[in-house]
Every structure is written in structure tokens, then in C-alpha cells.
Amino acid sequence: MDNSSITPQVLDNCITKTDVPGTAPPYRGKVRDVYSLGDDKLGIVASDRISAFDHIMKQAIPYKGQILNALAAFSFSKVEDLVATHIIDVPHPNVTIAKKCAPIPIEVVIRACLTGHAARVYKSGRRTLCGVELPDGMRENQQFEEPILTPATKAEEGHDEDISEQEILERNIVDSDLWKEIRVKAFRVFERGQKIARSQGLILVDTKYEFGLYDGEVTLIDEVHTADSSRYFYADEYEERLREGKPQKQLSKEFLREWLMEQGFQGKEGQTLPDLPDSFRKKVFERYAELFKKLTGNAFDPTPVQVDELNEKLRSIFSDYR
Ligand SMILES: Nc1ncnc2c1ncn2[C@@H]1O[C@H](COP(=O)(O)OP(=O)(O)O)[C@@H](O)[C@H]1O
Ligand SMILES: [Mg+2]
């Protein structure tokens, strides 16, 4: 699919917010509207909202919710032999029915490369990140000898903050046996993600996992190996670009972060959130669709939806699962 199907009408009809008639309002995350369905299930609706630097953009990205939902479902299915996942069903392109878990309040970040936040810390001269020692003399985007775990606290509001594994245990945020299990599972899932990416000509650079407990079982929740939670580089040009000190070709939300920084926005106090021009929204859509195609091997097939129609559908879908 090319961007000719992204008409002005499609741009005007992005799913920015859902409201299911006769249902308690959802928890609205930056990207998903999360409806509680009884004691043990959630109805998670992926909207077309896009966030960067912890800010939701004023304009949405056409079909982003569908791409994210499908990519997460695909990636969850590829790791379910390694860890319990929250997936119960995907009854609509924008919707996942999930096990309602007690979330573990840590973002489990794994990095294969010195990229993004890690690279910014490194450039500032620091040589430890979340308690992990970083060797001297590394270049931006260079691979670590082994992937590293650089957790962050999942803050209720505002910025997530880096935390070391030692501190997670000392502050009793997670019990030590539980943490051991989480870290082992996270590394295994990451290794699988790298393998899948590699087989499709991509490098899985870094990612963020969230875990929860369901009936006491460690369960992978939220989303996995999507463009929002992960960075990917194209593998074929990686070595050459690294050698020549050129930026990597990326398939992820990094594209948006870079554009925002060019406009002078890094999410800091006093900075104004720029409007996303339609031409740029189309480009972001193309990136998401491209990652979907690369990773799954199938072209993304959009299902046009209007928000009113979606709200009605959600009402009927949710009543089946309550
Ligand atoms: N299976 C699950 N059980 C409980 N909470 C979940 C589950 N899956 C996702 N969540 C939570 O639902 C929210 C998803 O919405 P999102 O837009 O990603 O929110 P956020 O802005 O907090 O990142 C997140 O807070 C995530 O932790
Ligand atoms: Mg999230």
C-alpha cells in the first residue's frame, strides 16, 4: 500500500479518542484507551495518537493504531513459547482483548546498541547507565558485546526515570526472585526479537517491555517489538554507516523524535509542541507501514473506520467478553 490511500478524508478521520456508549470511561494512555471488562479482562483499543518525549502530538497518524495492534499481535505470537502473554483475542484491527494483569511498575528496557538515550548519556561523558558500566571508546549506534538491561521506573505522571537493578531490589519495587524471572524472560524475548528482525534484514536495536502478574504468573503485557516500543535499523547498511559515522537508517518512532528536535522541541518545559503537517503525517504512516511489511512479510491492509462506527462496534465486542 502506498500513501495515495491516505486522502484528506482519511487524515481527518483518525481515531484520536474512543468513547463506548454505556461503558465506564477508559484509562486513556498516551496511545491506548484501556477499558476494564469485568475482573480479569481488558479491552485495549489502539488509537492513532502518537507520542514523543512523553507528549501526545496534536495530530494523529492514519491507521497507526491498526498497524501497532497487528504488529504487537504478530510479535506476541512469536514469543509465546518463551513467556506467558496477555493476549486473549484480537477481535477487530484496533482492539486487543487482554488478561487484566497487576502491572510491575518497571519499564524493562533492553539495548543491543549505544543509541538514543544511552548515546546521549554516553556523549555527556558518563560511563554508567542504570548501574551498567559502559566501555570507553564506543561510537554512537555501536553494538554492545552483549545486550544490556537499563530499566526505568514507570512513573504515574511525567518522565520515567532510569533505575539500576540493584536499586529496584533495595527499594523493594520488585521481589528478587520475581525480578530474576523477569530479567531472564526479557533477555530471551529480546533474543527472539533480534532473530526475527535479522531474518527480515533489520536489527532490533533496543526495546521496552512491560510485565504484569496474572494469577501469580509473570506475563508480558502492553505491546512487544512494535515501532513505538522498539528501534530498528536496516541491517544491510549498518556496518558501513557505523564505520563512516553516518546516522543509521531507522524504522521506528525515532523519525518523529528527530523531526521534533529539528523544530526545537524535546519535551522540555517552555517548549511549544509543533503541529504535524499533513505531508509529515503521511510520511510517519509510511514508516509504520514499512516496518509492518518488513517484519511480517505482509503488506499492511487498512480497515477504514469512523470513530462513531468504532464506538458502536466496541460496545458489541466488549459485551461478548464481559
Ligand atoms: N495486560 C495488561 N494488564 C494491565 N495493564 C496493562 C496491560 N496491557 C497494557 N497495560 C497498561 O495499559 C496502558 C496502555 O496504554 P498506553 O497508551 O501504552 O499508556 P501509557 O501512556 O501509560 O504508556 C499502559 O499503562 C500499560 O501499562
Ligand atoms: Mg505505553
Question: Secondary-structure map with pairings?
Answer:
Blueprint: H1 8-12, E1 27-28, E2 32-37, E3 41-46, E4 51-52, E5 55-56, H2 64-77, E6 84-85, E7 87-92, E8 95-99, E9 102-103, E10 106-113, H3 117-123, E11 128-129, E12 132-133, E13 143-149, E14 152-153, H4 165-170, H5 176-199, E15 202-214, E16 217-221, E17 230-234, H6 238-243, H7 254-262, H8 278-296, H9 307-321
Parallel strand pairs: 6-16
Antiparallel strand pairs: 1-2, 2-3, 3-8, 4-5, 7-8, 9-15, 10-13, 10-14, 10-15, 11-12, 15-16, 15-17
Helix pairs in contact: 2-8
The structure holds adenosine-5'-diphosphate (ADP) and magnesium ion.
EC number: 6.3.2.6
Domain SAICAR synthetase/ADE2 N-terminal: 27-265
Protein name: Phosphoribosylaminoimidazole-succinocarboxamide synthase
Would you list the SSEs in sequence order as H and E?
A: HEEEEEHEEEEEHEEEEHHEEEHHHH
CATH superfamily of one domain: ATP-grasp fold, B domain
Give the bound compounds: adenosine-5'-diphosphate, magnesium ion
- Structural category is alpha+beta
Shape, per Cα inertia axes: globular
Annotated CATH topology of one domain: D-amino Acid Aminotransferase, Chain A, domain 1
- Report the radius of gyration as a whole number of Å: 19 Å
Tell me the helix content.
25-40%
EC number: 6.3.2.6
Catalytic activity: 5-amino-1-(5-phospho-D-ribosyl)imidazole-4-carboxylate + L-aspartate + ATP = (2S)-2-[5-amino-1-(5-phospho-beta-D-ribosyl)imidazole-4-carboxamido]succinate + ADP + phosphate + 2 H(+)
Family: Belongs to the SAICAR synthetase family.
Keywords: ATP-binding, Ligase, Nucleotide-binding, Purine biosynthesis
